[in-house]
Every structure is written in structure tokens, then in C-alpha cells.
Specification:
The protein has about 525 residues and is an alpha/beta fold. The protein contains 14 helices and 15 strands. Helix 2 links the parallel strand 1 and strand 2. Bound molecules: NADPH dihydro-nicotinamide-adenine-dinucleotide phosphate and 6-O-phosphono-beta-D-glucopyranose (BG6). 6-O-phosphono-beta-D-glucopyranose binds next to loops.
């Protein structure tokens, strides 16, 4: 029987055959010549788990044609090309059950990767890297093509400034006939407003904003990208999406595992910096923003910034922090750490559309389930003749992951002779509705956007600043120990105080009804 990952790869390979012909002409006439993708921090966790697998998927779909693309790994570790290839091979296709065709694709892809070792703060390694890239560009560009260089910083942020300096000094694209140099940076972008601004200025002195791609991988998720379409292409939602009809909005991230060997990193940041200030806040922007003037990246990002600027200061009474029991057993975590692994934070947007509507952002590690979703709860029906209020309110839910779905909880007549009501749903479950469609990984989509020069799904500098302005006062209070994390048992819903805060904010839980993702 075919494993699901094997099926996915085969689907992607067939996609290449079908779609590459379709896309081919218009895309390649704009962007031809050599493309060098340089993964800095190639020896690391993100590179092997996300960056290289995303590149492999793009390769399988024909977006990285072997006659145009070369991939370079760069890090301090001493490794041969083959050692790097061996390190990432197992992450490209998790399934052991691979066909000869897939093995051949893997081998061909790995063959495109070359490793260069060097430090992050001296010219020597970057000069060598530049030489290797140029050598390959000369081979590719015999017919006077364009040289494109994409630097992906899969590195700790502490080295971003020196790495960017070295790139700008030693590795910029030489060609001036339409070539480009772009730099992808990973979160966390700073630890608070000042450090983020400092980082932005350091990088900003070296590259234009149009060359900097700040990744927030939640912006690459299918259902996050669907938010704009849902809201602005459907008449249904236009008149309802406001304070007159919506009682509260929850944006939730839950993981059923702890910090999983990343305790050292995590303890420095905590759940607010790791998830809420970036991933959940980006989702909030898409839920709350006004309709952009057009679909250009700048129009969309202008509207996102406006929402962020309208968020009120966070009140201490609207925050609950938690830390799971056992978190401090990690040897890299201080025994007296107050770092939250769980937080519920209510944001309030001071504008005409949203005044009075709580946006409840909730994120936690080591909880009882893994999921991310947006839950929009509507107000009660006025003059309720059916007394259905007791059964629950209308909710519009966007399940970001797993089991991607959009569903509406609503009250209907219980089928039968009696006139009684029951909760049900209108359900658009992707697995069922779009059978055979492979939903691309967020990183895959975002790397492709970078190659195409589309910054819509990346965080602009002023957006980042506005996001830090919202959370910095709270974070400083947590750092100073003025707000304490409440212990909670792993495998639970987190501190009970968080559910109490939800209720206080107006959320009414539906009892006796649960949405079950359909199985095929
Ligand atoms: P790693 O800790 O694995 O570091 C990546 C590489 O950077 C290492 O292999 C190492 O390479 C080099 N490195 C590590 N520490 C230092 C240091 N102090 N100074 C200089 N170089 C160092 O990081 P990840 O791959 O986990 O993450 C990379 C970036 O992506 C980070 O900004 C992280 O926050 C972000 N990120 C990671 C995610 C993940 O799932 N891992 C998810 C989302 C974002 P060498 O020693 O060979 O040079
Ligand atoms: C990363 C966080 O940004 O997102 C991790 O640093 C978290 O702590 C991860 O596990 C979750 O991503 P996803 O795509 O699995 O929801």
C-alpha cells in the first residue's frame, strides 16, 4: 500500500508534469538565468526539517529547474558535500517506502547541493562562498542570463547583523541586468521593541526593504491565506463582520508536546514571543483588517499596520500566564524560571468596527491537543423564540491545522416530527472536499514567493515595530517577574484561570456538541 508521504511526492511529481508547461512561459520570461539559493546555518535544525524539504518539494514540482538552480549550504561545521546530503536526506521523504522514481528525484535534488564551510563574521568564508556561487553562475550564464541570489538565514538572530554585513560585503549579485539579491530572515526578530528596532536598523543599512523577507511561516499556511478571500470575496460575511454581530474572537494555538529539546532557546523567549507576538498576531491582522485598496503587498500590509496601531495597551487583568509542570526539569532551563509556556492575552481594537470585541489570543505547549484555529463567536439571536441560546451560539471556525477546515456552527431543526432545535454545522473539510489536492507546506510557498519577489506574505518593518509596541510592556513585566506563571499539568487545557478569563470576556462554550473532522 502506498504511504501518504509517498503519495504526496508522486502527486507533486505529476504536478510538475502537468503544471510546469502551463506556468512556464510567462514566469520564465520574467525570471531566467541562474538562481542560487544559499542556506546559511545549513547544519541546523530548521534547515534540515523545513528549509531543505521545502526546496525539495519545489524542485519536485518543477519550480527549481536543475539547469537554472543551484543550492549552497553554509555553516561553521566542517562537512563534505556528501555529509550534508546524508544529514538532510532522511527529512526529504519521511516514508521508508519509496519508489525508484522518488529515490531518483532525491538523488538528483541532493546533487544540486554544495556545502561551503566558514564563519559568520569574517570575510574569508564568504569570499569562498562567493567564488563558488560565481563559478556556477558563469557556467549557467553562458548565454548572458541574469544572476539571482537568495540567502536564507536559518540561524540564531544573534548572528544576523554580522552575516548580513558579510553578504553585502562579499556576496552581492554582480549582474546589473535584472539580477537580484534577497535575504530571508527567520523569527524571532528581536526580543522587544528596542532590540527589534536595532536589528531592523542594522539590516536596513545593508539592504533595502524590498530585499528583506521576514518570514512568519503562519502567513504561508493555506487557511491563513484563505482569510482575505473568505472575508472579502463573500457577500455573506461583509455585513456581519463587525461589533454589531460578533461577540468575541479567539485565535488559538495548542501543542500537545513540550519544548522538546529547545528549552534553552525557549526559556529566553517564552510563549508570547515564540507564538503570540508573531504567528497569532499576524492571523489577528487578517481577521480584523479593513479591505485593502488592492491585492498589492503594500496595500495589504498598510491595512495590517493600521489594525496593529489601533490595539489598546494590554491590561494585566486580561492576561493569564502558565508554565507546565516538568518544564524546569530540562537541564538548559533555570530552576527558578518564570517563563510562560502558556498564555491567554486579550487584545482590544479601538476602532469603529471592533470597539468592545475581545480578541482572545491563546497559546500553549504540553496541552491536551494539537491544533490551531480561529473561532469567531456571534452574539445571541435577539428575541430568541426557540430558546436555543442554551445550546450554543453561532460560530464560524477556521481550523488552520491539523485537518484543515472551515465550518459554521448553527442551530437547525432536529429532523423528525417534533419541533426541536439542535446544533449542527456547515462543513468545508478540505480533506473531503479537495481529495487528491496536496496542500503545500508554508515554507514551500514562502520560498517560492521570495523567488518571485512577492512580499505580501512577509512582515514589513513598520508592521514588526507596531507588533512589538503592543507586547513590549507586557513582556518587560513578565521578564521582571511582576506577572507570574501559574503551574499546570501537562496534557491538560492549561490553567483553569484561563478558562475563567474566557468566560469573563463573554465566550460561551457550546456544551454537548463537538465537531468531528470527517474521515474519508
Ligand atoms: P540551530 O540552533 O539549529 O542553529 C542553526 C545553525 O546555526 C547551527 O547548526 C550552527 O551551525 C549555527 N549556530 C548555532 N548557534 C550559534 C551561535 N551561537 N553563533 C553562531 N552560529 C550558531 O537553529 P534552528 O535551525 O533551530 O533555527 C534557526 C532560526 O530559525 C532561528 O532564528 C530560529 O528561531 C528560527 N526558527 C526555527 C524553527 C525550528 O523549528 N527549528 C521554527 C521557526 C523558526 P554551525 O555551528 O555549523 O555554524
Ligand atoms: C515556531 C515555534 O515558530 O512554530 C515553535 O518556534 C512551534 O515553538 C512552531 O512549535 C509551530 O509551527 P506549526 O507550523 O507546527 O504550527
Amino acid at each position: 500500500m502506498m504511504g501518504s508521504s509517498q503519495w504526496h511526492i508522486e502527486k507533486r511529481l505529476s504536478f510538475r508534469n502537468e503544471s510546469f508547461v502551463d506556468r512556464g512561459d510567462s514566469e520564465s520570461s520574467q525570471e531566467c538565468g541562474s538562481l542560487s539559493i544559499i542556506v546559511l546555518g545549513a547544519s541546523g535544525d530548521l534547515a534540515k526539517k523545513k528549509t531543505f524539504p521545502a526546496l525539495f518539494n519545489l524542485y519536485c514540482q518543477g519550480f527549481l529547474p536543475p539547469n537554472e538552480v543551484h543550492i549552497f549550504g553554509y555553516a561553521r561545521s566542517k562537512m563534505t558535500n556528501d555529509e550534508l546530503r546524508d544529514r538532510i536526506r532522511g527529512y526529504l521523504i519521511p516514508s521508508k517506502n519509496v519508489t525508484a522514481q522518488i529515490s531518483e528525484e532525491v538523488a538528483n535534488f541532493l546533487h544540486l547541493i554544495k556545502y561551503v564551510s566558514g564563519s559568520y563574521d569574517t570575510e574569508e568564508g564568504f569570499r569562498l562562498l562567493d567564488k563558488e556561487i560565481s563559478k556556477y553562475e558563469c557556467e549557467q550564464n553562458r548565454q548572458d542570463g541574469v544572476a539571482r541570489r537568495l540567502f536564507y538565514l536559518a540561524l540564531p538572530p544573534s548572528v544576523y547583523p554580522s552575516v548580513c554585513r558579510m553578504i553585502s560585503l562579499c556576496c552581492m549579485t554582480k549582474s546589473d541586468n535584472g539580477g537580484w539579491t534577497r535575504v530571508v530572515v527567520e523569527k524571532p526578530f528581536g526580543k522587544d521593541l528596542d532590540s527589534a528596532e536595532q536589528l531592523s536598523s542594522q539590516i536596513g543599512e545593508l539592504f533595502n526593504e524590498s530585499q528583506i523577507y521576514r518570514i512568519d511561516h503562519y502567513l504561508g499556511k493555506e487557511l491563513v491565506q484563505n482569510m482575505l478571500v473568505m472575508r472579502f470575496a463573500n457577500r455573506f460575511f461583509l455585513p456581519l463582520w463587525n461589533r454589531d454581530n460578533i461577540d468575541n474572537v479567539q485565535i488559538v494555538f495548542r501543542e500537545d508536546f513540550g519544548t522538546d529539546g529547545r528549552g534553552g532557546y525557549f526559556d529566553e523567549y517564552g510563549i508570547v514571543r515564540d507564538i503570540i507576538q508573531n504567528h497569532l498576531l499576524q492571523v489577528l491582522c487578517l481577521v480584523a483588517m479593513e479591505k485593502p485598496a488592492s491585492l498589492t503587498p503594500e496595500s495589504i500590509r498598510d491595512e495590517k499596520v493600521k489594525v496593529l496601531q489601533q490595539v489598546n495597551p494590554i491590561s494585566d487583568e486580561e492576561v493569564v500566564l502558565g508554565q507546565y509542570e516538568g518544564y524546569r526539569d530540562d537541564p538548559t532551563v533555570p530552576k527558578d524560571s518564570n517563563t510562560p509556556t502558556f498564555a491567554t492575552v486579550i487584545l482590544r481594537i479601538h476602532n469603529e468596527r471592533w470597539e468592545g470585541v475581545p480578541f482572545i489570543l491563546k497559546a500553549g505547549k504540553a496541552l491536551n491537543s494539537r491544533k490551531a484555529e480561529i473561532r469567531v463567536q456571534f452574539k445571541d439571536v435577539p428575541g430568541d423564540i426557540f430558546r436555543c441560546k442554551k445550546q450554543g451560539r453561532n460560530e464560524f471556525v477556521i481550523r488552520l491545522q491539523p485537518s484543515e477546515a472551515i465550518y459554521m456552527k448553527l442551530t437547525v431543526k432536529q429532523p423528525g416530527l417534533e419541533m426541536s432545535t439542535v446544533q449542527s454545522e456547515l462543513d468545508l473539510s478540505y480533506r473531503q472536499r479537495y481529495q487528491g489536492v496536496v496542500i503545500p507546506e508554508a515554507y514551500e510557498r514562502l520560498i517560492l514567493d521570495t523567488i518571485r519577489g512577492d512580499q505580501q506574505h512577509f512582515v514589513r518593518r513598520d508592521e514588526l515595530k507596531a507588533a512589538w509596541e503592543i507586547f513590549t510592556p507586557l513582556l518587560h513585566r513578565i521578564d521582571r517577574g511582576e506577572l507570574k506563571s501559574i503551574p499546570y499539568k501537562p496534557g491538560t487545557r492549561g490553567p483553569a484561570e484561563a478558562d475563567e478569563l474566557l468566560q469573563k470576556a463573554g465566550y460561551i462554550q457550546t456544551h454537548g456538541y463537538i465537531w468531528i473532522p470527517p474521515t474519508l
